[in-house]
Design goal:
The chain is an all-alpha fold. It has 13 helices and no strands. It has helices spanning about 10-30, 40-50, 55-75, 80-105, 110-125, 130-145, 155-175, 185-205, 215-240, 245-255, 260-275, 285-305, 315-325. Helix 3 runs antiparallel to helix 4 (about 80-105). The longest helix has 25 residues, at about 215-240.
């Protein structure tokens, strides 16, 4: 059995790196704790609530569905039982998630991805692509009617579950339809998606819906999803411009080492919360400036690492567990 890595799609790595870059804006505050975190000013609060909160994790969840389908497709050509390969991969992710839960920041995100991969994505992989797409849209639509803002209530958990399942299904269907394979030729569709999503995002923001009503809840979720769509479509369009090389250089290494970076962010947030008292600090400088500095450091480190190794350290362990063998990690020197 060969373990040669599938050909990567740089655009997906860039979008994944972008999503990773936005996660600390939310997660640092959650790790430190609301009672110890500085209060935001009006502008920072607006940016956080309308441009950040849930936007990056939405993209990240969608991309998990994309990655699942890509790996299943790759495994189909390399293993007699490709879904068994995915079961091992998800089981390994569950183990990594347990480490994060008990040793780092108590974040359940990786555990949720592992479980939903097993109970949602694997069964969906047997269905036609049109059915996957329809179910994804139906799950998102069902989530919108649930009015619940308290994260401690069961209604909120159900809403997040439906949204996550819908995003995962839509991500997988993108691969089934082959959309990922020819992004460079989809400028027209991307521009249309950008314009429509931007109009929806701005309109629902201006309307300021009452989120205690069903209509308000639906409009708020449309704003969330449309804002995330604006980010992704705009980024993909920028990859077809003169700044493509710069974006790829900065974000693609982070995207390729997404799991390592995610866990590193969690570990850094735990250490920061334990060692630094941020009460009285400037919210914008800490939240947005601190995230920018940390992600820049991650980008530099990832670029350095990937010049010497094929995978990030956690990605390598994950791959070894997936294939039940030691996968070469060092890059083979080019002989001239």
């Amino acid at each position: 059995m060969t373990h040669k890595s599938r050909r990567r799609i740089p655009a997906i790595d860039v979008v994944r790196g972008f999503a990773l870059a936005g996660l600390p804006v939310v997660n640092v505050g959650l790790t430190v704790g609301h009672e110890r975190y500085p209060d935001p000013d009006a502008i920072s609060s607006f940016i956080y609530d309308n441009l950040v909160l849930f936007r990056f994790v939405t993209i990240f969840t969608f991309l998990f569905g994309v990655s699942f389908a890509l790996i299943l497709h790759s495994a189909s050509g390399r293993a007699a039982r490709p879904r068994l390969v995915l079961v091992r991969r998800l089981a390994a992710l569950f183990a990594i998630g347990m480490v994060q839960l008990f040793a780092l920041d108590q974040n359940l995100q990786l555990l949720i991805y592992a479980v939903l991969g097993l109970v949602v994505l694997l069964p969906l992989s047997y269905l036609p692509r049109r059915t996957q797409l329809t179910l994804g849209l139906a799950l998102l639509a069902a989530s919108m009617s649930i009015i619940e803002h308290d994260p401690h209530n069961a209604g909120f958990a159900l809403k997040m579950l439906l949204i996550s399942c819908g995003l995962l299904a839509l991500g997988a269907s993108v691969v089934c339809y082959g959309i990922h394979a020819d992004l460079a030729s989809r400028d027209t569709q991307l521009r249309m998606a950008l314009v429509v999503a931007a109009v929806l995002a701005v309109t629902t923001l201006v309307l300021r819906p009452d989120t205690t009503s069903v209509l308000g809840s639906v409009l708020a979720d449309i704003r969330l999803l449309s804002t995330s769509t604006v980010y992704v479509s705009a980024l993909l369009l920028l990859l077809h411009t003169g700044i493509s090389a710069g974006l790829t250089t900065v974000l693609a290494p982070v995207g390729r080492m997404a799991l390592t970076c995610f866990l590193t962010q969690a570990a850094a947030a735990v250490m920061f919360a334990a060692l630094v008292d941020v009460r009285g600090w400037n919210y914008a400088a800490l939240t947005f400036g601190g995230t920018a500095v940390f992600v820049a450091a991650q980008a530099i480190t990832c670029s350095w690492w990937l010049r010497r190794f094929q995978y990030g350290p956690v990605e390598w362990l994950w791959r070894c567990a997936t294939w039940l063998s030691i996968v070469p990690i060092r890059r083979t020197p080019v002989v001239t």
